[in-house]
Model the fold of this input.
Amino acid sequence: QVHLVESGGGVVQPGKSLRLSCAASGFSFSAYGMDWVRQAPGKGLEWVASIWYDGSNKYYGDSVRGRFTISRDNSKNMVYLQMNGLRGEDTGVYYCARDRGTGAQFDYWGHGTLVTVSS
Amino acid sequence: QSVLTQPPSVSGAPGQRVTISCTGGSSNIGAGYDVHWYQQLPGTAPKLLIYANNNRPSGVPDRFSVSKSGTSASLAITGLQAEDEADYYCQSFDTSLTGWLFGGGTKLTVL
Done:
């Protein structure tokens, strides 16, 4: 049974950093791409970042490129999102999701972790 | 263009049929990338509803179906039920962004 569990959210001041983690279980982690998707309060879904199954390629949404970094540790079945230079508009629930490759669907999602950027 | 446009809301009575449109452009749906649909019930994480060409994950009833033409796609829900009340999102890959696009979401209200 596939499980994705996010952690690391919390309240952080503007300009500070935060690292989110996503623990994966129940599948062959190193065979799948992984993604982060966020949702601002009362708003829709926004794709944040993607990483290939082997970590060789990473892609970012325009609003986070240069500030956020996605990474993974296949030996630990973990994916991370390092968020630097946080802004108020980064506030929201961050979901970890598994993808089936470029152009393919996000077939499993975690329950999300809330990030609040506020002074 | 690199955006997927959905109507903000749709509604229907129990038993009726509703459709939700998703309009993209030549760098995403029009480029031949698959369109995927997600359902988000209130207070929960999104869930994959239908992917690519009418493929439904286990447990999703065949009341849900999709179609695609040119730069647009559409989700149809027949035999509307109260439990279908949720937000629905379309998704496609965009070659200009080298990344994913989600539609703005459509809130389905069952009257």
